[in-house]
Amino acid sequence: MSARRNQNDVDSTPVNGATETDYPRRRTHVDSPETAGGYRTSKRSSRAGKKARRSAKNVRRKEDVKHRAGRTGRGLVALVKRGAIILGAAATLLLVLVLVATGVNSLARYIAKRQAVAETSPEALREKAKENLLIIGENGKSGADFLAVRLDENGGQVFGIAVPDGAFMEVPGQGFERIGDSYGAGPEVSMAAISNYLSVPFEKYIVVDQDTYQEALTAQSLDGVMEHVIDTGLDDGEREEIAAFMSGVPSENVALVPLPVKPISLGDQTFFEPQREEVAELLLSWWGVKIGVDENIIRVIVYNGAGIPGIAGEAAQVFIRNGMRVVDTKNADRFDYEETLIVVQDGVVENGQRVKDVLGVGTIVDQASEQDVADIIVIIGADYVRVSEEDTQTGG
Q: In angstroms, rounded to a whole number, what is the distance separating the alpha carbons of residues 157 and 150?
């Protein structure tokens, strides 16, 4: 029994002389070490860890949002700054353009005004008047008909507007009356009245008999008219030059038309009211004059404040010869004005200075008014009478 061992017995005989203690025993069970504190401590630790991780995640998320917000804010700030720079540049450019446009407009107005002043200077008016001739058809010592003519030498043409003696218009020194009555005061007064009404300067005239005048209108020709001159301010050379031109213009190049008027009967007399719009069309076509739109023509009312008969009419003729338009002439409220008053009604004081330069005397008074009849009212005083007398004595 001792010789036979059970198969289940383990041979514990040391091999090669090793002792039993040289081999570790095989463990059949390994105990897991327990967490210090037990189960509850472990659970609390797990919850705390999760909370800490969530807190850390939230912090990271907030930091990320803050970072993104900061980056977006910086982008918006940069965009706003860029937009402000663009808007500032655009505003600056717009301001520059406005200033340039304003400057250009101001310069254009200044040039236009200077040009208008130059065009109404005595020299410019004399140049314009070279082609113009007033033919006066005498029908008595105190009455006449008038033919306002343009002798277009460059175009080889003759244009004319026949003004009947019964046409009413402003006559310097006589007021609003028949143009035929102006001839009683002399041909210069008639020229001033026609020039004033048509806004066309006339400085040359000839006087012919009524038959010659009517024949020219009927034949539509001025050929031979110079042979029947009764009176004129032209010298011999000018008369010959005009006569030669008139004889060389064929009738098809001559247009002599009556002034468009509306007949008005007062008792046994017939007067004629000029039709301004139709007259304006003729003036624009033949003389290039635009009635009613030229803001640079100064409109003047002349009052006689000196008590000298005809002095307002004389001053009115001076204004007309200098390119101004006389609206009316009449007596002032009294005749003891020592100095001439130039009352500016439209607020343009420089126009008052132009009037003063033309008269040679006067005190400018700026007195704005809402009336739209005249720009300036001139009350002639004794100082102008003295200057006029001195000019007459010296031949001025």
A: 8
Range 130-289: architecture per CATH? 2-Layer Sandwich (3.30)
Provide the token pair at 45.
């630790």
- Residues 293, 299: Cα–Cα separation, whole Å: 13
Q: Which of 285, 242, 240 is nearest to 260 (CA)?
A: 285
Same fold, 130-289 and 295-396: no
Q: Which residues face 257 on adjacent strands?
A: 161
pLDDT profile of the chain (396 residues), mean per 10: 48 50 51 50 62 72 67 68 77 76 58 48 69 93 89 94 90 86 92 92 95 95 95 94 94 93 74 82 88 72 93 92 88 95 93 94 93 90 85 59
Does the domain at residues 295-396 carry the CATH identifier 3.30.70.2390? yes
| Spatial distance between the Cα atoms of 71 and 226, rounded to a whole number of angstroms | 99
pLDDT the model gives residue 122: 55
Domains of the chain, by residue range, sit at 42-119, 130-289, 295-396
Phi, psi (rounded to 5 degrees) for 202: -125, 125
Residue 85 tokens read as 């720079």
Can you tell me the distance from the alpha carbon of 225 to that of 248, in angstroms, rounded to the nearest whole number? 13
Q: What SS3 class is residue 186? A: coil
Strand order in the sheet with 341-344: 325-331, 299-304, 376-380, 341-344, 363-366
